[in-house]
Amino acid sequence: MSDIFTEETRDRARAIMARYPAGRERSALLPMLHLVQSVQGYVSPEGMAFCAEMLGITKAQVAAVATFYTMYKRRPTGDWLVSVCTNTMCGVLGGDKAYKALSEHLGVGHDETTEDGTITLEHAECLAACDYAPVMTVNYEFFDRIDADRALDVVKQLENGERPQPSRGPRLCTFKEASLQLAGWADDRDGAVGEGPAGEPTLAGNRLAERFGVTVAGFDPNTPIGGNGNGSGPGHSVPPTAPKPASDGKPAGDTPAVGKESK
Ligand code: FES
User: Fold this and answer.
1) Could you say which of 34, 68, 204, 262 would form a disulfide bridge with 183 (CB–CB 3.0 to 4.6 Å)?
2) Predicted TM-score of the model (pTM)
3) Where is region (Disordered) located (predicted)?
């Protein structure tokens, strides 16, 4: 094992593992992959070996997870990961043009990094902000309702060493800093935490529902999230015919249709 991962990183890995019940430390793999990404800017073969060693699992098991999720990068990532949504909603509203403009300006394509190693470009398939379409993110912070010019403006500020302010949420931090936050270490700098209510585009549907008296039958808006703790609150009801878990402890699947015998 190389010394890329210092004792401080090992301490952090142990702290992540301690969040999980004894014997279930392998559940720490997801944040631990963010941790190694915070050190190297991507999940390298050494990073996978580090996770495997700390968790007592195989490198193949780590690789199976690391290669599944797009937030784990397999190649060195720049300080600034620029993700442009080119999914249908954003694409037709200008996301495709913005991505093309950035690709031409930076001279890189999808999942490629500029020669100086500072900016990685990728196209993304729905960044879950369709109400602000078209959107792009820098290290997962949103820039809403962009067009090609606005996207270029943001990237040029990054090239100049500036940190443009996202449309909402906290101020920008580097990809490695963001990875450390995702591993569970809060950023205590001023402005590092975004606060405030949901924006108007997000609430538009709710406002229309209020205006036209559209409600969900039987729904109590004052119900605490999580219900009453015994699993009987809205959204947490247990169907009377819920199947028992299989003997291997895995979920048994969908509730069988009433009157339908399993063969
Ligand atoms: S389609 Fe772009 S955020 Fe959903």
Assistant:
1) 34
2) 0.80
3) 217-263
